[in-house]
Write a structure and sequence with these properties.
CATH class of the largest domain: Alpha Beta
Number of helices: 13
Strand order of the largest sheet: 2-10-9-8-7-3-4
Mean pLDDT: 94
Structural class: alpha/beta
CATH architecture of the largest domain: 3-Layer(aba) Sandwich
Shape: globular
Radius of gyration: 21 Å
CATH superfamily of the largest domain: Type I PLP-dependent aspartate aminotransferase-like (Major domain)
Number of strands: 14
Number of domains: 2
Distance between the termini: 53 Å
CATH topology of the largest domain: Aspartate Aminotransferase, domain 2
Helix content: 25-40%
Order of helices and strands: HEHHEHEHEEEHEHEEEHHHEHHEEEH
Amino acid sequence: MQFAKQINRLGTETAFAVSAQARAWAAKGHKVYPFHLGDINLATPENIVDATLKAIQDGNTGYCPSEGILPLRETLSHDVGSKRGVTYRPENVSVQPGGKPTIGKFIAAVMNPGDEVLYPNPGYPIYESQIEYQGGTAVPYGYIQTESGFDIDLDRLKSSITEKTVAIIYNNYQNPIAAESSQEEMEAIAELAIENDLWVLADDAYYEMIYQGKARSIVSIPGMKERTIILYTFSKKFAMTGWRVGGAVGPERIINIISKLNVNAESCTTHFIQHAMLEALTGDSSGSDAILATLKERRAAAVAGMNAIDGIQIPTPRSTFYLFPNVNEVMKRKGFNHVDQLQVGALENANVSFCTREHFGRSSSDETDFYIRFAYSGISTDDINEGLGKLKDYFESS
């Protein structure tokens, strides 16, 4: 017997491997400071939990339409559209069991084997995995570090477009680097998509995880709504990572394909959770406001703690819950040649667990800098301060 050859092209989220390391270290009796996984150790707002229990008691436990229940699609279409300055209808929404399924279904809908899809690197590793698993060519574009954060390398992006390119994956408010596009950068990406007649997957997982100012969306640029699928998820704003509910929002012709894929993959997203999501979108928002306020407090502690370490200097990101510091000076001080040495050393000497750039897509041959990623969503402010104090001692020792 044999396995399908395409399984060899399927990647994974290697951040979960770091979780396994952290669990093993904790099992030996160590207190681990978990900065590795973008999970949220805060409770889902109580009104959403109560609405879920009511939906179960009301008998919403059977099959429902593969595209999602109409009241949720109506509400979600209005919520997503109004916050981005465009108009959507229920026919523009397909409810999904999380944010991640939209990635694979989008690729299945627009890409043939041999086609090319542009994706951010470093970036969420499932982009690369799904493109290659489905027989496409994953073409990375990168970022340039600036004093204020990171900018997309637009020259590289433009030069990477060929006659085989069919789509761009664009993750504003980005995981892992917390990059945020300027209006000019967003318009440049839109121009490339329109000029080359490309589909766009706008991964908006962190669209509402913004601490000041107003979020911007590429769909608000003329000509983009017709070619863009928005990846929406309830996971971040409402601390619902394990609930697995989200949506794909975009042109009806591709939404119909995605809903057809729903039938083949999972039949429908959990019925009673969809009813509860109406409460998430229309009910008391104090719970989600409190989640954002807590994350903002943690961000301040994490930025201060990282900047207190000799050789590290990072700006304060306006969005997400990640920091992506350059650790060239630390690597030089420690005498390390590979960033994994730093990651393992920090766990074993400071009990601090984090991911590295290598966990977010294959690095290119021209990358010479070393980066690590810190998530401050799953650790208390007190433990952030305590853990980064221990990390400072380790990073500053030779």
